[in-house]
Amino acid sequence: ANSGKDTDGSQFFITLSRPRHLDFGHTILGQLLRGFSVVTNIINTPTSADRPLADVIITRASLVTNTTDMVITLTGTNLAGVSGTIQVIADDGLVGGRVTNTFTATMVADANNELPILNMPAITNLFIPINGRVTNVVSVFDYETNTLYYDAYPVNAGVYANSSNSVFTTTYTNGLFVVVPNTGYTGPLRFYVAVSQYANFSGYDYQECVFAVGDTALSAQPTNIVARPLIGFTNQILATFTNGLPSSPTANFTASINWGDNSISSGVVVTNAAVRKEVRGTHTYTNSGIYPIYVTIKSVAGAETNVVSVATVQPSLSLTRTGTNTILRWPAWAADFRAQSHTNLATTNWVSLTNNSYLIGYENVVTNGSSATNRFYRLRR
Hints:
The chain is an all-beta fold.
């Protein structure tokens, strides 16, 4: 769900029917394959004022590599009422086991007239020379090819402003968006751009866009990091960037870091020996995982760019010894990590175990037969 437009990260729904009113407003993040009895129990839990009388709690969750279940997605390209027979063949590819099944799919008319959606981004020409002008054609997607209506209005300190804002003038008709800054003005110009299939804009999609007057574009590169859970790090480089002007002072830029674990903080911008700018940050991850780090860099004159780095917070690896067997365990979400071994902890020639891991509960497990008791083990992607 959304805690604000295009935010996500707030809640999620388990939907049972066809909630078409949610189309284009929410992200579909999964499809139920097994465990329907759990959903039935949730449905049958008595409620009061839209809350369950008994708490429904997720006690544990994990990302599990699934090699047994599949989903078929069918895309209709014909008229309503047209049917086709779909044949599905499951073959183990090894010992000749094969199962064939068929079903009929029938096209159904879509009775919904969805709202048009602004593409991301809707505006691409965001840099304006001093005393210049810029023209954009707003990019929109609409399933039904409705007649579209457009609007644009400036943003003033986050509040809708009217045309009395004298920083700029605009011409906006039929999706053609022209911005003409006032003479001599430099800095950011913020607009909301909106589109609707209704002349009265009873329903619409909108985006905020920032025009940079008298600024240059930012070019950024990610810097991936490796961390450990519950062990904090400081002054960690997360991205490098340039605006093409090496002499630009760091005070001209700000950076925001979304760490991928519901934490957001400000980054520190410094200049390195290669005269490129760096974004550095301080953080502590509480849990192992693979986290996308979203770094947003802004110039005081309006240029903005986003870059995604990756933090690999190493999964824990446990070891037990039973007879001559060494048993290694690590979290199920880390199925793309492989166990490696060596007798010398300082070696650079670690050897990957040839044993395939298998899933037990929420863990990957490898049983490695060896008489040696002085071996070291580690995980690597």
